[in-house]
Specification:
98 residues, mainly alpha
């Protein structure tokens, strides 16, 4: 899947989540967390580009910077989902969601 298609899919998911949960106070907390982590990951991605170009000729090269970024992106995504599921479940128990 090309990166742009993935990004467009994520934007679509983000829009769906925003439409459904943006009125909930906890949603803003999750947005702030993601914006903060996104900034730091983007800075690290720019720094990693100094060491290794993203190019088909480098497909066998290993980069600790890129592997660390992949791990951290997965960790942020996992934390986001854990928190969202926990908060949604709490809201559903209270009867505040449909």
């Amino acid at each position: 899947m090309p990166i742009q298609e993935f990004a467009n899919g994520w934007r679509g998911l983000n829009a769906v989540l925003f439409e459904k949960y943006s009125t909930n106070a906890w949603f803003k907390e999750i947005q702030i967390y993601l914006l903060n982590r996104n900034y730091h990951i983007n800075v690290r991605l720019e720094l990693a580009d100094r060491y290794l170009d993203v190019d088909p000729d480098n497909f066998k090269a290993f980069s600790y910077e890129y592997s660390s970024l992949l791990r951290d992106i997965g960790s942020v995504f996992g934390s986001f989902l854990d928190k969202m599921i926990r908060l949604i479940s709490t809201e559903e128990i209270r009867g505040n969601l449909d």
